[in-house]
Amino acid sequence: MKLQHQLNAAFTTLLLVILAVTGFVIYSLILDLLVQDEQRQLKQKGEILVSILNEEYGAQQNIQQFGDFLQDRDLQLFMYDRKQNRVLDSTMSKRVENGFFANNDFADQSEELWEYGNDKYVTSRILFYPKSTGLELILLTPLKDLQVVQHDYFQRLLIVFLIGAIAAIILSYFLTNKLVTPLSKLKWQLKKVEKRQFDQIERIQATGEIKEVEQSVFDMADELQRYMKSQQAFFQNASHELKTPLMTIQGYAEGIRDRIFDETDEEKGLEVMVTEVKRLKKIINEMILLAKLDSEQTVYQPERIDISDLVDQVMDRALPVVNEQGIMIKHNVEPSVTLVADQEKLLRALLNITFNGIRHATNQVNINAKKQDKKIMITVEDDGNGIPEELIPHIFHRFVKGKNGETGLGLAIARAIVEQSGGKITVGKSELGGAMFTLWFTE
Ligand SMILES: Nc1ncnc2c1ncn2[C@@H]1O[C@H](COP(=O)(O)OP(=O)(O)O)[C@@H](O)[C@H]1O
Ligand SMILES: [Mg+2]
Questions:
Q1: 365 and 393: one domain?
Q2: For 249-262, what is each residue's pLDDT tens digit?
Q3: Crossing angle for the helix pair 143-194 and 3-52, nearest 10 degrees?
């Protein structure tokens, strides 16, 4: 069932239940009120009659005369003598009178609703003056008369309820329609996401939570589109990067097979092939590592690391290369600064950055680490030519490399690792003249 119909059904059911309960309460309340009102009226009527009797007919002996007067008034009443427990006069039939006597209604002062057969009567009893006479006027109204009024009232009430309910249901239809329309519109936008028609996605007018959902859907589509684009770019770049060394290898291999090279060229060809195969292996290994870092397949094992230990390990691995290139490497690490990260991976990130520095330095590479405002800052800088301005915004992207670049994956890997450790990596200019990479971590 459609959401709108479900909402309407729920609302209508609720409305009907409320109206039924209210109707029932009001229905019984009407009769109560009518009975009370009738008793009040009977009492007034009775008091008037009693005062007339007292004034005009004076005393007991004129009862008969008064009786005739009452017969003309079309009233239902008893003239009752408490002392003798006897009805002196009545406008009602003897049968009914006997019925009341049988029920003990005359003697029981508290009984206000008298019953004879299926008929009920609302009563009011007024004592004649002086009270010592024990004479009482009892006026009665059949409950049936009141019930006719009750039904009449209730019918009108039902009509009002009916009109109200219809109005409420129509209103609910419009309101739910307003509520549900953005949802069905959103469904169509999601279908477009499913079909990857990102350019055709439109914003939807909505409020409250639906607006929030709409915003999330829009952000999700945006993110998905960006992801797909970057994925596409990655595959294009990756295939390009893999193709170049493969073509070189193929060229030399075919040349050697077809014996078109002399001995020295063949030697050189084999040398190039070995270098290219090594490069291929490096690219593939780095791609695999990046993919793993991306999908978080690699188990990330955070532990508390002492930064000076970490930098020592970087130095150990860097020194042979540095010596070979005739470059100086210095480090300056504040003692007992620690952070929580995966040691092996963070070492890998630092090595990628340091080896880049060594490769691009003229004479000098510096590694510094210190704590500053609860933040841990590790910098690697060199005195080379620095990173070209136009490359800076993209330097951490995959396959982005400058002149004499290798795989273009080293910095992408470094960033993935640093971010996985909850840190940040930035690049700027070093005072030494070259590039300066800064890694920020919280303790
Ligand atoms: N210290 C540095 N000085 C100058 N340029 C650098 C430095 N570090 C990195 N770069 C530039 O950034 C590019 C990307 O680096 P990287 O991702 O490590 O790839 P790769 O080292 O394989 O080329 C490099 O090709 C180089 O142009
Ligand atoms: Mg590199």
A1: yes
A2: 999 999 999 999 99
A3: 160
Do 272 and 328 lie in a common domain? no
Ligand 1 proximal residues by C-beta, below 6 Å: 352, 356-357, 360, 382, 384, 386-387, 395, 400-402, 405-412, 434-435
Q: Contact at 8 Å (CB) between 314 and 367?
A: yes
pTM above 0.70, yes or no: no
Ligand 1 centre from 389 Cα, in Å?
13
The CA 406 to ligand 2 mean position distance, Å, reads 7
Structure token digits, residue 330: 């210095």
Domains identified in the chain, total number = 3
Whether 419 and 322 share a structural domain: yes
What CATH number did the domain enclosing 408 receive?
Answer: 3.30.565.10
- pLDDT tens digits along 25-38: 999 999 999 999 99
Q: Let me know if residue 157 belongs to a domain.
A: no
Q: How far is the CA of 390 from the centre of ligand 1 (A)?
A: 13
The two structure tokens encoding residue 345 = 């991976």
